[in-house]
Design brief:
This protein is of the alpha/beta class. The chain is built from seven helices and 14 strands. The chain has a single domain, classed as Metallo-beta-lactamase, Chain A (4-Layer Sandwich), CATH 3.60.15.10. Strands 6-5-4-3-2-1-14 form a seven-stranded mixed β-sheet, with no helix packed on it. Helix 6 packs parallel to helix 7.
Length: 261
């Protein structure tokens, strides 16, 4: 599987007005734009959480860190299932890859051997651009667990994506960071460690009104919980214009920009 996904990412092209999203497991996704630019958000590819916290991985990584060749890696905060301290030095060895993170990611980036010019720290409202990707940090409420955590509002070519990061239900402050209609929203549904439940993710989506809602952050660790079936059942109550789904590790989906109803 590890080689298969890297080849699939390389071979798969997004058409104009489209993005392709690959699931990396836990909160990790890889987004590919029509220009071929690639953004990995919160890739967790090692077993460092077991080593550091005793939480055993239940799902194998769909790709090795050595095979993940992307333009930008973005980390919403410094927890090791989002800033993978074992995979990061391997990803950093690719000299072309740039790194973006919340303020609490500085130590992790430096520990991976990244020079200051290789990474950018974003606070809510601040942006980083590469090719047809623009990554803007948004507010996230991860409480005392990670007070500097952020989400990301991403312009990926013509498509806008709100990855809310690890956060509780704070709709006004989360939505204040978008400023534009959201095509795709990605949200945790595990309801543990300060994160949204599946029901809360759907409530937030009802306000944000994306065309596609992707539930993530479940199924990796027994301690993290999460009920994808319950999330999808709750999502059936959303307006018909909002389609909801989950994305398995190694899975892929295409999203094409649609005209407003």
């Amino acid at each position: 599987m590890t080689g298969t996904l890297s080849h699939r990412i390389a071979r798969t092209q997004a058409k104009p007005g489209e993005i392709v999203v690959f699931g990396l497991g836990q909160a990790g996704v890889l987004i590919k734009t029509a220009s071929g630019a690639t953004l990995a958000i919160d890739p967790y590819l090692s077993d460092c959480v077991e080593r550091l916290a005793g939480f055993r991985r239940l799902v194998p990584a769909p790709i090795r860190a050595e095979d993940l060749d992307v333009d930008v890696v973005a980390c919403t905060h410094s927890h090791p299932d989002h800033l993978d301290v074992d995979a990061l030095p391997i990803l950093a060895a690719r000299g072309r890859t740039r790194f973006v993170g919340a303020p609490d990611c500085v130590e992790g980036f430096r520990g991976a051997g990244l020079a200051p010019g290789r990474f950018v720290i974003l606070r809510p409202g601040e942006e980083f651009a590469h090719s047809d990707l623009v990554v803007r940090a948004t507010f996230a409420d991860h409480g005392k667990l990670a007070p500097d955590a952020v989400g990301f509002f991403v312009r990926a070519g013509a498509v806008t994506i709100l990855n809310v990061g690890d956060t509780g239900y704070a709709p006004e402050r989360i939505m204040a960071g978008t400023g534009d209609p959201v095509d795709v929203m990605i949200a945790p549904i595990n309801g543990a460690f300060g994160n949204l439940t599946g029901e809360e993710a759907c409530r937030l989506a009802a306000l944000v009104r994306p065309r596609l809602l992707i539930g993530n952050h479940f199924g990796m660790f027994a301690e993290h919980g999460g009920d994808p079936a319950g999330f999808l059942a709750e999502a059936e109550k959303l307006p018909a214009v909002i389609r909801a789904q989950t994305l398995a590790a190694g899975g892929m989906l295409r999203y094409r920009k649609e005209a407003a109803p």
